[in-house]
Write a structure and sequence with these properties.
Length: 166
Amino acid sequence: MAKFEHLRHQAPRELANPRELLLACAPLRSNVNLSRIARAAGCCGVTRLICTGRAKLDPKIARDAAQTLSIESHRSLVPVLKKLKAENYTLVGLEQTTNSSDLHHYEFDRRTALVIGNEREGLTEDLLAELDAVIEIPVWGLPYSYNVATATVMALYEFCRQYPDG
């Protein structure tokens, strides 16, 4: 029988290539959700987080990610998305729409901006108009969607699964 030794706070794995994934967040209602998203992004090797609205990280939740992430604040996300598209990012929204792709079957481009919507309103029509693709996470029970931080973590994990070395 295999024996396991508990290794707490193991050093992070080295990425062969820097991640070309960034997160762009619509104004979130909860700084707790934003802080959880930042922490997960840090664990995934994401180095850039774009926020709009009154974004403020809780350092107790975001922990070390607040030190490793480049956090940009903007008034509106639409001009940022236009700029990212000009920089050859594929803009992928995380939302339930009529033409969303199932996260389990979506193949991310290595250079992706994952666009996250507001907890209540999701991604607005003006943001959806800028996107190259929209992904959603299947739900098998109620409520009809995952919490924004939980859904973001699931999408981040899938990206990392597809690009484990960066």
